[in-house]
Amino acid sequence: MSEFTVAPQTTLDAVQAALGSKIKRISSKLGEVTVVVSAADYHRACLILQDAEGCKFEQLLDLCGIDYSQYKDGAYDGPRYCVVLHLLSVSLNQRLRVKVYAAEDDVPMVASVNDIWASANWYEREAFDLFGIVFEGHNDLRRILTDYGFIGHPFRKDFPMNGHVEMRYDAEKKRVIYQPVTVELREVVPRIIREDNYGGIAPKVQ
Q1: Residue 100: phi, psi to the nearest 5?
Q2: 12-66 pLDDT, tens per residue?
């Protein structure tokens, strides 16, 4: 660790002092500090983390969604959707991971932090597109990776691997059309080679 890098425990203490009762859980593992806040406190907590002494997280480096529905082979018991942020303090040379769970599984929703960190804009659109997480207050929440006519959210664990619809160019209609998917889902089993002298390596003599 560089002599100019803030120690994880120092970051943890600063975040704990700044957020106080807004913290649901906080931990430091493998040199990384993670704090969990509720959806109700999420936006306010982010504002505090941006400006509070000892925090000063000026930059949002990444934001993504998570679907926990198949976590631990389906044995997980908790909110299905989570949003994870990675923050950087340039002035203090420290990092922080923030996690917030959507209160409802049917319509997962958390506040947008696009007004705090402009870099959240496309990240939130991506999480909306792929997971269906709604970011309340986002001023341009629309798909960013999938096509305009795409149905569903492809990173959800229950999304079929072959999708719902496909698009192709129709020569007769002279335009792109959408139709129900025609690709049949098949399981590909890798070929296992069991030759004794495969690759020119002779088997060992016992």
Answers
A1: -140, 135
A2: 999 999 999 999 999 999 999 999 999 999 999 999 999 999 999 999 999 999 9
3-state secondary structure of 33: strand
- Retrieve residue 117's tokens: 């960190």
Contacts of 51 (CB under 8 A, 6+ apart): none
Q: Report pTM.
A: 0.82
Q: What is the pLDDT of residues 188-197, one digit of tens each?
A: 777 776 666 6
Domains observed in the chain: 8-145 (3.30.460.80)
Where does the pLDDT of residue 151 fall: very low under 50, low under 70, confident under 90, or very high at 90 and above? confident
- CA angle (47 as vertex; 38, 85 as ends), nearest 5: 60
Contacts of 24 (CB under 8 A, 6+ apart): 36, 37, 38
The separation between CA 47 and the C-alpha centre of its own chain, rounded to angstroms, equals 20
Neighbour tally for 162: CB within 10 Å: 12
